[in-house]
UniProtKB/TrEMBL annotation:
Lineage: Bacteria, Pseudomonadati, Pseudomonadota, Gammaproteobacteria, Oceanospirillales
Coiled coil: none
Protein name per the record: Antibiotic biosynthesis monooxygenase
Cited Pfam families: ABM
Keywords: Monooxygenase, Oxidoreductase
GO molecular function, one term: monooxygenase activity
InterPro entries the UniProt entry points to: ABM_dom (IPR007138), Dimeric_a/b-barrel (IPR011008)
Sequence ranges assigned to domain ABM in this UniProt record: 5-103
Organism: Vreelandella zhuhanensis
Amino acid sequence: MSQKIYCTASFKPKPGKEDAVFKALQALEPNAHREDACLLYTVTRHISNPFAEGQSYPIVFHEVWANRAAFEAHCQRNEIREFFASHLEAEDGDIEDANVCVYTDEPVNFDAPDI
């Protein structure tokens, strides 16, 4: 049975703040990579491509965690909580909106063996 958690965190910077938000998110990467259960933690920018013309917020974090507990522990770290408090929740923050979702690759009603 897979216990991995996949997180997609999309960010909409305030006008003119895209570079500042991207750099602030990049600054979170080194410490997240130090977490044993962090399998992937990469911030990306939206680019134009004729084969993928969908709509998205301009900055997206792709995360893969070994399990739910590890993801939830990561979210409770001071560095992560302070990022959201200062950049999104604060009136003078650089982020207009964010959308953070988690996913599993576990099929519904998967017949996982007990080990």
